[in-house]
Amino acid sequence: MHTDLPSGIRIEYETAGPADGPPVVLIMGLGMQLLAWPPGLVDGLVARGFRVVRFDNRDIGLSTRVPGTRPIDMRKAAVKAMLRLPVQPPYRLEDMAADTVGLMDALDITRAHVVGVSMGGMIAQVLAAGWPQRVRSLCSVMSSSGALRFNFHFTPATRALLSPPPRDADEAALLDHMERVWMLIGSPGLQPPREALRARLTAAMRRAYNPAGGARQMLALMASGDRRKLLRRITAPTLVVHGGADPLVPIGAGRDTAANVPGAVFRPVPGMGHDLPEALLPMLVGLIADHCEQAG
């Protein structure tokens, strides 16, 4: 399903669960489609009585692709952001948060529990600070406050994420590239079997493949800068979840996020990397559902 927002952006979305259940809006991370939300997490929240909404952010999946003018040098942009030099994105995280509000309007959702992972957590933070009347509770997962000391760690995982796939690569080569990135950022020892992982990656690629959109999203992330002052404006009950084995966004970033949101609760997850592994889904569903229920 899709809806056209007043801004001209078309958002592809799916819903699950009872129409009268408390709404939970899931915001996915950088370059990832709504398919990236594991069925076990969606089904787990539905089993707890929630109406679950997930969607493709702009520039990814089946949502609007924003026109680009020239190739983006991600390494150069990262260095500029690290040196606090201006990064000029075609849109900002605030625009992506406004997309989420527009989707809520289209679905007649006045207030929702908002869960965001990675860049989606950043969008959720901006949403909670900028539209407090629309957010019943916030859950920021494997994300950060934008504080510089947590943003740029040139580890193998970071280098893989910033490196483009091979030029003119066929489907098999693209899958190899995506698999390498996934294995570098994922939870050690909790990765799915290779065949299952490649099947998931193949399904996502064949549904929609838009690396240029992911690069533009990365620019929006880099341009966001330090959000700690923004986080201090959040009034929604907030849960911050972060993996203890995250090789992409260090666990200190989660602690820092929680420290800057008034009253936030921090929950570290030992062994979890920068993904949502199947083995940890029951625990993650429990954390998120309990938090939403406690927030009313």
List keywords for this structure.
single chain, about 300 residues, alpha/beta, Rossmann fold, eight-stranded mixed sheet, 12 helices, about 15% strand
Describe the protein:
- 43% of the residues lie in helices and 15% in strands.
- It is of the alpha/beta class and 296 residues long.
- It has a single domain (2-152, 210-295), classed as Rossmann fold.
- Strands 1-2-4-3-5-6-7-8 form an eight-stranded mixed sheet, with helices on both faces.
- It is globular and about 50 Å long.
- The model has no long low-confidence stretch (mean pLDDT 91).
Task: Briefly summarize what is shown.
The chain has twelve helices and eight strands. By secondary structure, it is of the alpha/beta class.
Set down the secondary structure blueprint.
Elements: E1 2-4, E2 10-16, E3 23-27, H1 39-47, E4 51-55, H2 74-82, H3 93-106, E5 112-117, H4 119-130, E6 135-141, H5 148-151, H6 156-162, H7 171-185, H8 194-207, H9 211-224, H10 228-231, E7 238-243, H11 251-260, E8 265-269, H12 281-295
Parallel strand pairs: 3-4, 3-5, 5-6, 6-7, 7-8
Antiparallel strand pairs: 1-2, 2-4
